[in-house]
Write a structure and sequence with these properties.
Layout lengths: L1 E2 L4 E2 L19 H14 L4 H13 L10 H4 L8 E9 L3 H15 L8 E5 L14 E9 L5 H13 L9 H7 L3 H11 L8 H7 L3
Antiparallel strand pairs: 1-2, 3-5, 4-5
Length: about 210
């Protein structure tokens, strides 16, 4: 998670383990978010001071190491409403795209305070997966739902697209060019739902169903 206006990121790694579970440290994600929001509001016109204070706070976050079942590791408390946009990029393009997104945010969008989520995702074999046979870097940006997120996300989207991010508003004719097993996937869908009972108007446009 890159913390905007800090120059710092929090790194999270997980692996399979046969060790006995250990207590999960107490977390206060909402408290940390409230602090970032307060610094944004109070120091919006003083970016250097904002950066210095965030850096100081991030340095004090202790490292954590524990063993738990997956459902206790990945669960998190999310009470602050936000809008999110995520793009999946070729892995090698991820760092360049992230650097541009950070520069865009810190130059033009001082209202942003939510951390940016950056993940590496292993290739898979699922026909319509965004990770189909490709090592992927996923980058998600967030914006407080109390304010209009569209200017920020519209400015960020061309960067994602330039580095190979796939747009979510494409239709059937576009997908056929991008997914080698598109026709096979549609054939499976027809077998499962021949009467199109589960097809909404949106899905009809997505799958090219008239």
């Amino acid at each position: 998670y890159y913390i905007p206006f800090s120059g710092y990121a929090q790194f999270i790694a997980s692996d399979l383990s046969d060790a006995q579970p250990t207590p999960r440290p107490t977390e206060d994600d909402e408290g940390g978010l409230a602090t970032l929001r307060k610094l944004r509001t109070v120091l919006r016109r003083l970016p250097s001071l904002r950066r210095a204070l965030i850096k100081g706070a991030v340095r004090k976050v202790p490292a954590e190491d524990y063993v738990q079942d997956w459902l206790n590791v990945y669960v998190s408390d999310r009470r602050t409403k936000f809008n999110e946009m995520e793009y999946h990029l070729p892995f090698e393009e991820g760092p360049k795209a992230l650097a541009e997104i950070i520069a865009l945010t810190e130059k033009h969008f001082p209202e942003v305070y939510f951390p940016m989520e950056v993940r590496s995702v292993a290739p898979d074999e699922f026909w319509l997966s965004p990770f189909h046979k490709r090592l992927t870097c996923s980058i998600a940006i967030h914006h407080d739902a109390a304010n209009d997120p569209r200017p920020f996300m519209r400015a960020a989207e061309p960067i994602f697209r330039r580095y190979g991010g796939k747009m979510h508003s494409l239709k059937a004719a576009d997908f056929k060019k991008l997914y080698p097993r598109w026709d096979d996937a549609l054939a499976v869908r027809r077998d499962i739902d021949p009467d199109n009972r589960f097809v909404s108007p949106y899905m009809a446009g997505l799958f090219g169903i008239e």
